[in-house]
Amino acid sequence: MKIAIINGPNLNLLGKREKGIYGNMSFEDYFAFLKEKYRHIDFHYFQSNIEGELVNELQRVGYEYDGIIMNPAAYTHTSVAIGDAIAAITTPVVEVHISNVHAREEFRKISHVSAKAAGSIIGLGLKGYELALLYLTDKG
Ligand code: DQA
Question: Could you report the predicted ipTM of this complex, rounded to two decimals?
Answer without folding.
Answer: 0.99
